[in-house]
Specification:
It holds the Pfam family YceG. The protein is mainly α. It has 16 helices and eight strands. Helix 11 packs parallel to helix 14. The N and C termini lie far apart (about 135 Å).
């Protein structure tokens, strides 16, 4: 259109030209100074460390899981909560494989093959030897290997035989201590002295005289009470050998000792020889029999020689000894107040029904009891004491008497105490049996 003025178009403002930012030393310095992308360099350092730690954790987890599985399957105890000990015996000549099989069969081991490999790996094959060990289902395979290879089966154990114990008492004690594997085996060995007679001259003498025949246990009286150190691998026969051999020492010290005793004369103050009565009319075997009776009858050692004097006086007078322990030896009765039926039991041990000494010892006496049997109290011999009985049971004291009337009065006085004591012991035994 002519003459019309055009409105000018607004010009678009140009943007400055944009180029990629280049990182030079100045730029990096500025970013560090102003904190631009501050974490970039830190991440570059931490990333490989974190990757490594994650890998380590994964490996540890896998190894731990695998080890726990292996331990539970092959190595851990069969029963961790069962701490009861079990006797495990390795026989001479048993191989490691056989030992592993026996351990597994005894429910002491989870895997016999692992046991064999571990023994070989640890290099203890030659250190495992035959013997009897105390093991437990709560022991893992490593603890079992350590026990079998430690040589503990060759270590010694202490056993103490108490004076007055019978053969059966000793068998019970040794079995409870783990010193013997079988109570019956021990008792059977004690029934026949043939295998042991050559080791003890008093035992051999009794065997040659034929006096051992008819006894319940031919070794009764010949197992010397004492404290011994024996190997843990010792068999029942080995232990009996030790006890029988010790009897020789006791006999030497007592029977063949000519030691003169002295005492102070109260008037002159000088030493004088003590008058002693020696039972030379008795054989060595009879001394042991008499000593066993003294051991059972006397509650205190100071009464040993007095009890011996009473028995010696009765033997010399042709009286029956009428000793309660001889009446109960075969009956298995342990009480003070015996019934008429118990004292009249007919057997070769019961001195209520037989003359003289019982057929054999009724326990294993101490050296003190044997010395008392050989040397009874001279005063009681001369005074003619013929009787004794227990006083209050727990005191161990005895009441001695010269006449039957005195003795019967003593019995009447103390018998109620014996009966009360027997009832108390019976109740305690009943409660113990019930608790078990």
């Amino acid at each position: 259109m002519a003459g019309k003025k055009k409105t000018p178009r607004p010009q678009r403002q140009r943007r400055p030209f944009s180029r990629p930012m280049r990182y030079d030393a100045r730029t990096v310095r500025e970013e560090r100074e102003y904190g631009v992308y501050w974490y970039s360099w830190l991440w570059q350092i931490l990333r490989p460390v974190l990757v490594f730690l994650c890998a380590v954790l994964i490996v540890i987890g896998l190894v731990t899981t695998g080890w726990n599985k292996v331990y539970e399957t092959f190595l851990m105890p069969v029963d961790p909560d069962n701490t009861e000990t079990v006797r495990f015996t390795i026989e001479s000549g048993d191989s490691i494989s056989t030992i592993g099989e026996n351990l597994e069969e005894a429910n002491l081991l989870r895997n016999r093959t692992v046991f064999r490999y571990l023994v070989q790996f640890l290099g203890v094959t030659d250190q495992i030897s035959y013997g009897t060990y105390e093991l437990s289902p709560s022991m893992d395979v490593n603890a079992i290997i350590e026990a079998l290879s430690s040589g503990s089966q060759n270590a010694e154990r202490t056993i103490t035989i108490i004076p007055g114990w019978t053969v059966e008492d000793i068998a019970d004690y040794l079995y409870a201590e783990g010193a013997i594997e079988s109570r019956e085996e021990f008792l059977n060995l004690c029934r026949d002295a043939t295998a042991f007679a050559d080791m003890s001259y008093p035992l051999k003498l009794a065997q040659d005289l034929g006096t051992l025949s008819g006894r319940k246990y031919q070794l009764e009286g010949y197992l010397a009470p004492d404290t011994y150190r024996v190997f843990r691998t010792a068999s029942a026969q080995d232990i009996i050998n030790t006890l029988v051999e010790q009897t020789n020492t006791v006999i030497d010290d007592v029977y063949y000792s000519d030691t003169i005793q002295y005492e102070v004369d109260p008037e002159t103050g000088e030493y004088r020889e003590v008058e002693r009565y020696r039972n030379d009319s008795l054989t060595l075997d009879e001394i042991i029999i008499l000593a066993s009776m003294i051991e059972k009858e006397a509650g205190n050692t100071e009464d040993y020689a007095r009890v011996s004097a009473v028995f010696t006086n009765r033997l010399n007078a042709g009286m029956r000894l009428e000793s309660d322990p001889t009446a109960t030896y075969l009956l298995g009765v342990d009480k003070l107040a015996l019934s008429a039926e118990e004292t009249s039991a007919v057997n070769n041990y019961n001195t209520y029904v037989i003359d003289g000494l019982p057929i054999g010892p009724i326990c294993n006496p101490s050296a003190a009891a044997m010395e008392a049997a050989l040397y009874p109290d001279v005063e009681y011999i001369n005074e003619g004491y013929l009787y004794f009985c227990a006083k209050e049971p727990t005191s161990g004291e005895l009441a001695f008497a010269k006449t039957l009337e005195e003795h019967e009065a003593n019995v009447a006085q103390y018998r109620p105490l014996w009966e009360a004591y027997d009832r108390q012991m019976a109740e305690q035994n009943t409660n113990t049996d019930s608790a078990e």
